[in-house]
Amino acid sequence: MTQAKPSYFYLNLLRCVATIAVIIIHVLGPMRELYGQIPVGEWLATVSYNSVTRWAVPVFMMITGALLLSDKRPFECDHYLSRRLMKVLIPFAAWTIIYSLIVGFGPDGWSSTSAVSTLAAANNTPAWYHLWFFYDFIPLYFVIPLLIPILKVMTAEQIKLLIATWLFMTSIFLLEVQTAITQDVVLYTGYLILGWYLHNRDNSQQLQYWVAAGLACMTINILGTWGIALQTGQYSGFFMDYKTINTVIIGGMIFVLGQHFAPRLEQRYATTVNTIGKYSLGIYLIHPILLIPVRQLDNGVYSWFGSDWLAIGLISIFTLVAALFITMLLAKIPLLQRILP
Fold it and tell me: Which family is annotated (predicted)?
């Protein structure tokens, strides 16, 4: 979620749509577990939205790879740690504390015990569901400086082999083959390399293949998840993992579509897209607070809209606008600028 260079409008476009996709995933979260408890048509709404938005976090990682792995400036450790790493680490630490305090609030008021235990467990367990991202994203910042010189000396064919190897690993991860090398940091590093690779080449000739493969994977996600539910009687996230080949293909499709359509959209939508892109990390950090009453099913917020097909989309839009407005306001306060970059 690093800041894009002004000339890279398509990266801000990708940030914008990825931010929306993340909000959609979090809006539908509680509903996807209700298979057999709500009408199948409504449950399919949540599964369909979920299936076509799981690329969001991988695309954020691809954007980071596109920018940081393409940086041609000499590496300076102090600058990198203070300007790049701290830009992510400080918000993570601050919002872990904030969400730990929020956890303390319950029906009987605020409990310091709950808040402290949540904070104490934060070394391994995110204080809130969306903060998991930082546990996998921050280690990538230590990988990036090591990747840059390696990629510089590799030939085009060697890079293709590297990406092919990663694609194979994501395939066996989907098949749940246990190997020592299919670790999170390895599989997520692949997104950095893929983003860098696609960023530095013309992908127009391969666009139709990316779209065909990506749409096919989205369809498999929906039908596969529905099929598993019919067999087991419950929701399964088998096809929804961020580290599997189907998500990789969908993420690649979204990336090249962003490259393709950005020039056509820039003149008309540049202000909106760049604003959301600029505050994307703040929106990511803040929006779950707005969803607390929504995700409490007893409040019946989803039913206000008559259909989950409509509810998920509209709640996501309302949440995006509100989170953007709040982020822009808070970012004006000097004390908060470091935790809302």
Answer: Belongs to the acyltransferase 3 family.
